[in-house]
Write a structure and sequence with these properties.
Layout: H1 2-15, E1 19-23, E2 32-36, E3 54-59, E4 62-68, E5 75-79, H2 85-112, H3 121-133, E6 135-144, E7 149-156, E8 165-166, H4 173-180, E9 184-186, E10 204-213, E11 216-228, H5 236-282, E12 293-300, E13 308-316, E14 319-327, H6 332-351, H7 355-373, E15 377-385, E16 390-396, E17 401-404, E18 410-412, E19 430-433, E20 439-443, H8 445-448, H9 460-469, H10 475-490, E21 499-506
Antiparallel strand pairs: 1-2, 1-5, 3-4, 4-5, 6-7, 6-11, 7-8, 9-10, 10-11, 12-21, 13-14, 14-15, 15-16, 16-19, 17-18, 17-20, 20-21
Amino acid sequence: MKDLDAVLSAFREATGCPASVWAQPTPDEPLQIEGGDPGDSPAPATEQLPAAGTREVTTDAGRQIVARVPGARAAWLCVGPSRDERAAALGLKLLLPVASQVLRSQLEVSHAANDLAEQDAATTILNEISETVGARRGAIYVIDRTVGMLRAVATLGTSTPLADIAADDAVSVTARVFRTHHALTVAEGAMQSEVEAPIRRGAMLSVPIMWATPQGGVPLGVVNLSGRRGGQPFTASDQKLVAAIATQVGTTIQNTRLVRASTEQAELTREMALAHDLQMKLLPPPQSLAPAADCAARVAPAESVGGDFYNLFLLGDGKVGVLIGDVSSHGYRSALIMALVMSATAIHARGSSDPAATIGALLTSLADELRETEMFMTVCYAVIDTRAGTLTWCNAGHPHAFVVHTDGTSTRLAATDPPLGLVDEAPHAASRPWSASDLLVLFTDGISDARGAQKKRLGESAVLEVVTARRAEAAWRIVDGVFALLEGHMGALPPRDDQALVVLRTTQ
């Protein structure tokens, strides 16, 4: 469960809130740790576990939020104990779909080796094939592609458990037949392999289990038979008969997997829709800055979840903070980084109104996670001091940050530092005058790089033209205008990257 441990560790590093995941194989067995540190986030008593939904419980370590993890396994996510209620609530929203995804992936691995084993189907098939050709020993192997191993799902004539066989094993008859897609009859004493010794007596007939497709056969496993009654050799007719049966077995395996994949895809679609809704809820409503500012914002992920984000802060003393960021790539991994940034900046922005100090603290919180995932992100954080009439910003490699003035001209908030995750140096800040008539415009490259039917980029200047033309209008109308431009430019084409836009003017 290394992936789950890494996510839980990164979440604690960013928020200070521990979390753990526990599973119960059967109702009579104790809980088993699946991820996290049980010393920091212990398991509640069994009677405290919710059958569904969430529940607040009290343990020896303190109060926790416990949620049942969606999926086939009986598992629970424990968040806390933490004094920060917001961090605990964020952990529940962020980590629950992650835990569900990881546990489901683990279950898929075990399913791959059990496709034929359900209801003793594999054993029944092996017995019937063996009876037909008069073999006393045999085995059916099925490929587990997640690890590249052939696993025995049924055996005949031996009580010795059969070891897994690597698909690239140079000695094994089973592996060779799987790779070549051709049946093979091996004489006694030839091509000896220790892993196949328990099922070999005399000659062995080995036949691939194939799934026929219009593009050709796809190997799914191997049927091995040996120890033929009377010591007679396997004939070409025996090989054809077993090959015909193996083809039917292959169709059965693949149909079972396709049905399961369809069911799991529908479940994944539902879960990703839930993850999208949860991610959007992490973004603060623009109205949270009222009455200090007229603000509007929109984020449109390229997939269900993404790595573009913004955050808004009322800092007191007439100061307003606006942050936009873009995590490299998009999809689920970048969405995890985005959620950690949202939590960390909410904590760090409270401690200082200096953008460089806030971004520096953010970099410290996420340095290990960015290094381990080999990801980086561009961030621009601007603090407007309405009383002093200044705008101070820290721009870590974010290209699209502007102030649009009342006369229609615009000023770029130039980068002060490289993107976070590329260097370890402390960030810097810059400052310029701010007027109540100015308009702060921040957007990500998913907007400027949007492609139309002719693969032409929308471009930064086209976005600024719309903003400039609408600069006197309410912030939400400006945002609507930019996304209307995007829709007209892209047509029916899906976005290639996440898109985010924030527009703000102060009212003081």
